[in-house]
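Dear Dr. V.,

Thank you for agreeing to look over these. As mentioned in my earlier message, I'm a first-year student in the group and I'm still getting used to reading structure tokens, so any feedback on how I've presented them would be very welcome. I ran two proteins. I've put each sequence directly above its structure. The first is here:
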Amino acid sequence: MFHWLRDNHREEVRRRSFPSEWESFLRTSVAHYSVLDDPERAELRALTLVLLEEKNWEGCGGLELTDEIRVTIAAQACLLLLGLPHDYYRNVESILVYPSTVVIPERRPGVFERVNAPVETAIPILGQAIARGAVILVWDAVKRGARHPEQGHNVVYHEFAHKLDMLDGAADGTPPLADGDQLAEWVAVCSREFLRLRELAEKGHKTFLDAYGARNEAEFFAVATEEFFDRPLALQKHAADLYRVLGAYYRQDPAGRASRLLTGEE
């Protein structure tokens, strides 16, 4: 009964009118919106309405949470869902937005905790996806990434990719996949590309994928997701197999969209 009521409510939300002011935010602040076709834009707006309705949104650090902030974040998060079977990020309850870089305080061991690894020190972050918890984002980084995809850095794509990765209970760089064949190809391609990135990063070579992705498999998936949506033609050129498995997972072809935009095709 609960699922029936929830699904009915979601359908009602999806049918609501999308305010013209909100769409103007998408057209001016979310560069990717312009490369979608009309059905994709309609679906993105419907997904965005549900995410705005269902999640708890909080402005932190003195930030006044405006419609522009909420819509800009929600639409980018929903872009990742556009071709996926999904449940509107069921592992995200809250989205916390700060005005600028946040410093996560040093984690101190508990009184009875046995310390087997270095204690995490205070570090500045632009975003964080907490397992079984909130997504933390920094508005100035969100705005910059949304407007300038050519830079290949998008904190919303990055953190919500982590949340997709976590849907199976582990942040290991492998989100839930359709079947064993897709899993086998994913592991083969992503493992090879991850190890290649790590080797190049360790040698200090400049890499197309951000070297931050060499930290572990989870960061690799998040960084690769940023490039897949923001610089798809370049990713296709530098790592065609990686582009292919990401395309099969997300069920989208950003490179095709970018090519049509370059050639002036509708």
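The second protein is here, in the same arrangement:
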Amino acid sequence: MSRARYLLLLCCLSFVSTVLADWRVVWSDEFDYVGPPDANKWNIETWPPRRVNNELQSYTADPENVRVENGSLVIEARVDPDDDSMFTSARINSRGLGASAYGRFEARIRFPDARGTWSAFWLMPSDPSLYGWNEEEGWYWPNCGEIDIVEQVGFEPEVVHASVHSKAAYFKNGNQRTDQIEIADAADTYHRYAVEWLEDSMEFFVDDESFFRVENNGEGWEWWPFDQEFYVILNLAVGGSWGGREGIDLDALPQRMLVDYVRLSEYSDPDDPEADLER
């Protein structure tokens, strides 16, 4: 067989493998119940204000701030004159309960529409210490990596953003890997936001439309610490270094981030549902 025909055959086999491969859900929350988020899938974080990003809210476990109703997770930011921060909201994560290295992470979300809100669906590593302490930041970040599947700030409600952070590429270095897409009704209806994360790349989607892709450049963990298990975070902040850039519309609060479902899938061969494809 000639080299040209051999290479063509390899390409064809690769194409067939990709076509046959599919995503298989291995962890999810469909929010088809009523009450607090499922404790077998979510941790509710309780934080004081200004712990990160100069955000103004307290994160609480109060059902006024976080609950499941009408088939959706509700994360609600409120004005609370009795709270030291004046604002309360919620942040939940799946650390130790739902995580993966590689896969498709997807959520169907409806965002708030108020100046001063800052919503996010994002991923952090289960072991942030793997790539060491960062003296400048006073923590393991951004050495550990961060994957922002989607962020939305209320002063620009029709634009959503995706970003990837690492030691060698983040905003303080002036080279943050990020992109955005306009979704005119992001605050009026639900849309599907996802990342497909493989060993050598990440691709970000809105309603299955790809708008941002990042490649592993092979230059070490400083650029690509994304070879370990990451878990899901959902939160709605008030104010902060980005969300509060144009002030806060107090009259527009309370505001809700609504999540119809969260799903984590692995890349699998549908003819052998117990076996993942080689990545």
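From my reading of the second output: The CA atoms of residues 16 and 181 lie 31 Å apart. The domain at 21-268 is CATH 2.60.120.200 (Jelly Rolls). Does that match how you would interpret it?

Kind regards,
E.
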